[in-house]
Design a protein that fits this description.
about 65% helix; 8 helices; Alpha-lytic protease prodomain-like; 2 domains; mainly alpha; elongated; Alpha-Beta Plaits
Length: about 300
């Protein structure tokens, strides 16, 4: 199973699990008048949207490169993760408004063991989805998998606090329900911001991680017959990068030899660094006694 197949499976499981949770949370939330449970239900609705976006983004990203998209469709993952983040922030804003309204109007919760049961079921389902998403993410780096994993993890924590608010309501402490609703909205908004920033950075062609970049620079600088390195620019194509650089070699080397050096560097970098999709190297011949100012 490749990274696109496993992402598709994670998205499908997310859709099925979240539809089930949305139904039971909505029913029990309205019956008990629990703002925290309704906030949790709205979160499940957002999760369904996120799972659909995961499936669509993954489908587009899996398409091979073509004449119109020479470097593939990898950035689709980040476009759709950006949409997921925006939907999360919109839901968080609505939940914040409803939770504050619940506190101001002193809404009363009708305690029910059904509320506790729904919370327990939610935690079990979400924790299972979290474990599977985490397993998939360990095998294949994918921001859509990461978004789903974080979302499932957050839901486990959020629902745990929802459970506490329901227990407090049994002792006629109702304000906790609204406060938990506010906490849920803040958590969702924070997660949405983090996903937004990560997606935005790739779509705006943020450079390769500095640590990886330095390792590549060091590797090329120490390569036999390479007298200097200049440039080393990077362009994200999705979860991988294209890097472009100029290497300086002694001018007395024949054209075949100098290009053989560049080809070997290219192949080795693409093998050693999983973040790299393609390496483009310009070979510049210089005199042996020339002083090269390498640019990192």
């Amino acid at each position: 199973m490749d990274r696109f197949e496993i992402t598709k499976k994670v998205g499908l499981l997310g859709i099925i699990g979240n539809i089930f949770l949305l139904i039971i949370k909505t029913i029990v939330g309205f019956i008990s008048k629990s703002q925290a449970m309704l906030a949790d239900a709205a979160n499940s609705a957002g999760d369904i949207f996120a799972s659909f976006m995961t499936a669509i983004g993954n489908k587009i990203a899996s398409e091979p490169k073509d004449e119109d998209h020479n470097f593939g469709h990898g950035k689709a993952e980040y476009i759709f993760s950006l949409l997921i983040s925006l939907s999360m922030m919109a839901i968080a804003a609505k939940l914040l408004y409803d939770s504050i309204d619940s506190i101001l109007n002193k809404n009363v919760i009708t305690f029910s063991w059904w509320l506790i049961s729904v919370c327990i079921v939610t935690i079990i389902i979400k924790f299972s989805l979290y474990i599977y998403s985490k397993y998939a993410l360990k095998k294949y780096k994918n921001i859509l998998l990461e978004s789903n994993m974080k979302d499932h993890r957050n839901d486990c924590i959020v629902t745990t606090f929802t459970t506490f608010s329901i227990i407090f309501s049994k002792f006629n402490i109702y304000w906790v329900d609204g406060v938990v609703g506010i906490g849920i909205s803040a958590w969702i908004f924070y997660t949405g911001i983090k996903i937004f920033i990560e997606s935005y950075n790739v779509l705006m062609d943020k450079s390769l991680d500095e640590d990886v970049r330095n390792k590549i620079y060091e590797y090329v600088s120490n390569y036999e017959n390479v007298m200097g390195v200049e440039g080393l620019y990077s362009i994200p194509t999705g979860y991988k990068y294209i890097i472009v650089m100029t290497i300086y070699v002694e001018g007395s080397l024949d054209t075949f030899k100098s290009h053989e050096i560049a080809d070997n560097i290219q192949v080795n970098i693409e093998k050693q660094f999983e973040e790299i999709d393609r390496v483009i190297i310009h070979v510049e011949p210089i005199r042996k006694d020339s002083v090269i100012k390498s640019v990192e």
